[in-house]
Amino acid sequence: MKSISSLPINDTTNGWSGILDKWQPKAALEKDISADWLVVGSGFAGLSAARRLGEIRPNDKIVIVEAHEVGEGASGRNSGFAIDLPHNVGSSMEELEGSHRFMALARAAIDYHELQIDQHGIQCDWSQTGKYHAAVSAQGVNEVLIPFARELDALGQPYQWIERNELEKRIGTSHFAAAVHTPGCRLMNPAALVRGLAETLPENVKLYERTAVVAMDSQPQGIKVKTQSGSVFAPKMILCVNGFADRFGFFSRRLLNFAANSSLSRPLTKDERKVLDCKTSWGLTPANAFSGTTMRYTDDHRLLIRNNIYFNPAMRESQQHRDRIQRTHKKILDQRFPGIPEVDLEFTWTGYICLSENGSPGFGKVADNVYAAVCQNAVGVTKGTIGGMLAADLACKQDNELIGYMESLGQPSKVPPRPFLDVGVRSKFAWELWKARNEA
Ligand SMILES: Cc1cc2nc3c(=O)[nH]c(=O)nc-3n(C[C@H](O)[C@H](O)[C@H](O)COP(=O)(O)OP(=O)(O)OC[C@H]3O[C@@H](n4cnc5c(N)ncnc54)[C@H](O)[C@@H]3O)c2cc1C
């Protein structure tokens, strides 16, 4: 049996679940069981894989195990953008074709979410307000926004160019020189969405929470996993553990785990809302994803700040570090919204983003009886969802032209071994941050 060397931890700091009612986790697995299918991980990828299996194999027994609680992994901790467009489009025919495939995959995931939200009445503040892609400096406008707008033209996608003054009227800060608004992005409370998806799984899917896989054995007839107090045997397994996939022996030296920290303010008072004067909730992504700050104004009148991405292969962070980050986030808030200085940050949390060096997902058949949908490259609300669904289709030999689209994105490329990797990633990052320092 291969033992799983490190497990995810839940530091219980997640603000998105913190503002919801207390979650009642499903019982942990306490015995030895068998099933037709095993799905490991209950983020967007695992939940969509399990749901899809439940739908296309209604007579099969599907088990999904989650090390912690639903909504506490990256899927419940992200910034809540269901992004329908690629960040970088590129203008060659090949790049444009790639962008069309990206959009088809992302939009299929958005349609899937909307179907579940409508059918099951999932309350997650889902809204189609689009998103602002904004630049602070003239350099950001010239090097990112103008090329982005040109590429949207080439793709035939609608957008609005918005200058500083108009943007200030819409979002309450004059911090940005300009923005490109695209209408297709959806916003939500991600923890509420993940919980809703978990609560409405088909009847033939059984979810066990607080059930970490601690060892795995590949046998001739299938896969056996040991959990803390039980075991599962299944002929086939779909692995949806994101950046932990290498702990299971897959995608070794191909997954790069980064930490990202977010803060959520308390709800703004009526007077504070008048200062901001926003008519609706909104979401904004920075021209430079590494040095810039993602921001949101939520339906319940809170402000979200997300910045500070850094290489964190161990996927562990200290409270001391988070306290420092919270002070930085408060400065960012005050700088952008000087008219509301009393607004405190109620939550600050860390989440982990799994990237590959070449931006490709970890998707497909990875061994006998094992399929994977991992490494969503920071767009897992859509890519994780569609990846999980298509991994189920692939495993069931279900025809779906999107499988080919997904496969065309390639496989994560190999990176140098540590400690060379650490030096390489950190220096590349430092250079990126320095280049885009005016976007901070
Ligand atoms: C701060 C932040 C902001 C982000 N913003 C966005 C955004 O706005 N839009 C977007 O699309 N993406 C965003 N992302 C990325 C997105 O959150 C991820 O790509 C996505 O959640 C990945 O989904 P997943 O299902 O693949 O993995 P996860 O959500 O990480 O789920 C994997 C699950 O596997 C479980 N697991 C791991 N090991 C084991 C084991 N041994 N046994 C049992 N279970 C195990 C984990 O506990 C976890 O719940 C953001 C990420 C972060 C951290």
Largest sheet: 8 strands, mixed
- The low-confidence parts are none
Task: Tell me the helix content.
Answer: 25-40%
- CATH top level of the domain at 2-76 and 192-254 and 360-414? Alpha Beta
| CATH architecture field of the domain at 2-76 and 192-254 and 360-414 | 3-Layer(bba) Sandwich
Strand numbers in spatial order across the main sheet: 7-8-6-16-17-18-15-19
Mean pLDDT: 94
The percentage of residues in β strands lies in 15-25%
Multimeric organization: single chain
Structural class: alpha/beta
What is the CATH homology-level superfamily of the domain at 2-76 and 192-254 and 360-414?
A: FAD/NAD(P)-binding domain
According to DSSP, the number of beta strands is 21
Global geometry:
globular
Task: Kindly provide the radius of gyration, computed on alpha-carbon positions and rounded to a whole number of angstroms.
Answer: 21 Å
What does this structure look like?
- It is a single chain.
- The chain is built from 12 helices and 21 strands.
- With 440 residues, the protein is an alpha/beta fold.
- The protein has a domain at 2-76 and 192-254 and 360-414: FAD/NAD(P)-binding domain, CATH 3.50.50.60.
- The strands form 4 sheets. An 8-stranded mixed sheet has the order 7-8-6-16-17-18-15-19. Strands 10-4-3-14-21-20 form a 6-stranded mixed sheet, covered by helices on one side. A 5-stranded mixed sheet has the order 1-11-12-13-2, with no helix packed on it.
- A hairpin with a 2-residue loop joins strand 11 and strand 12 (222-227).
- The structure holds flavin-adenine dinucleotide.
- Flavin-adenine dinucleotide binds next to helix 2, helix 3, strand 15, strand 19 and helix 10.
- Flavin-adenine dinucleotide is lined by residues 4, 7-8, 40-46, 65-68, 73-75, 77-81, 83, 212-213, 240-242, 244, 260, 262, 306, 351-353, 374, 376, 378-382, 384.
